[in-house]
Amino acid sequence: MTLELLAPESLAERLRSRIEARTARVCVVGLGYVGLPLAETFAWGGYPVVGFDIDDDKVQKLQRGESYIGHICAERVGELVRSGRFEATTDPRRFDDADAIIICVPTPLTAAREPDLSYIIGTGEALRPYLRPGQLVVLESTTYPGTTEELLRPLLEESGLRAGQDFFLAYSPEREDPGNRDFATRNIPKVIGGVNALSRDLAVALYTPVVDGVVPVSSTQVAEACKILENTYRCVNIALVNELKDVFSAMGIDIWEVIGAAKTKPFGFQAFYPGPGLGGHCIPIDPFYLTWAARRYGLHTRFIELAGDVNASMPQRVVARIAEALNAQGKPVKDSRVCVLGVAYKKDVDDPRESPAFPILETLHRRGAVVSYNDPHVPQLPAMRHHSIRLDSEPLTSEFVAQQDCLVIVTDHSAYDYDWLVQNAKLIVDTRNATANCVPVDCQVWKG
After folding, report:
1. How many Å apart are CA 123 and CA 137, to the nearest integer?
2. What is this structure's pTM?
């Protein structure tokens, strides 16, 4: 009897037995900040793993035991490759070898703040010719509720195979937090929904041995909505404190001191902090997937859109604060030397995606400032979809700092010696409260 003639239960049992024996080959598609840690987690969990990426440079580095992600050291990659449990490839024919294919590709927004699902579509089209009976496909990319059922499923079913019967299809949202030393892929619970119970249960069986807890839900739509809720919650609360920062500042009240006092309450309050704007691939983007999806039902997500507008306005507010601080020293923005400290979107990582540093630098440049930046984790500004500025990180020597009319702390990396900066700079605009415990002498420190 061929696999094509087997009933769904028989196909599922074959796959389940391979999962239980750890002989099921896992293919992770997209070897970025989500996919590479996931591939590592599956490999050290006992599965043979193939990592697929269209970027040949990434694949070649991995095969040489090199890393291109700051918080994943080369030693980890080298050990992973030498273990024999992991290999990287650009060859889509390797999809045919896999028992489980996990899709971790980007889902950005278009310029009109609408979902750009081209990477999911491209992956589905690349996978479809090699899809075979008995395989499990799991989408992890963050997206709007309905993507797995309405987009990926019909795309894969053009192969002639039926989801939930001939192959199995599930959704499990990624929950990576780059740079977080307390939580990594292996100890973050996985939410899992399938197009049917059989698909969900197989995905649960696949993830259970390698993560600390799985959370089965009733559908792929619930799992997709879960991730959108998590990031919308953060987006809205960050917008709240960003707005309160301006309100309290006008009243002569320090927002950081207020938050410090409020978070002593042991219930009913979670601390969020203001900043120069949102960055990363999740919080600035994911809520607008829900906004777009809601419009399909004739609904308007006013609360989410307002939060997005508040957060998106923060870089311009920072520039206004810089102008105010320079003006207080008798200097215009034009021809002033302004150095941005930190272009990564968050502390102690090398990921600059959607970082507020880019609009801050570009706006200052348009206004005639002589701009520069320093970031110990980002030696050169990469090409970005919506930004054209290209600079190299400047070394923070005492001579360089003394030449700057203003330093702007955008990302509060641990590598910075804030006491030293305060002692050597003329003017600092601090958007992260990083200099709160420093004692300035000649330097003027403004809260951003």
Report:
1. 11
2. 0.91
Which of 1.20.1090.10, 3.40.30.10, 3.40.50.720, 3.40.190.10 is the CATH number of 286-447? 3.40.50.720
Which DSSP letter does residue 364 get? H
Class of the CATH domain delimited by 3-221: alpha beta
| Whether the predicted pLDDT of 256 surpasses 60 | yes
Q: How far is the C-alpha of 146 from the C-alpha of 220, rounded, in Å?
A: 7
pLDDT of amino acid 172: 98
Q: How far, CA to CA in Å, does 363 sit from each of 239, 354, 385, 387, 430?
A: 21, 15, 17, 11, 18
Active-site residue, 438 included = no
- For the cut 50, the answer to whether the pLDDT of residue 2 exceeds it is no
- DSSP labels, 302-321: HHHHHHHHHHHHHHHHHHHH
Nearest to 220 by CA among 143, 131, 278: 143
Distance CA 176, CA 171 (A): 15
The secondary structure of 16-71 as a DSSP string is: HHHHHTT-PPEEEE--STTHHHHHHHHHHTT--EEEE-S-HHHHHHHHTT---STT
**pLDDT tens digits, 333-386:** 999 999 999 999 999 999 998 899 999 999 999 999 999 999 999 999 988 767
> In whole numbers, what is the pLDDT of the chain averaged over residues?
94
**Catalytic-labelled residue, pool 282, 339, 406, 443:** 282
Query: Domains of the chain: which residue ranges?
Result: 3-221, 286-447
For residue 4, pLDDT over 80 is answered with: no
Q: What is the pLDDT of residues 26-42, one digit of tens each?
A: 999 999 999 999 999 99
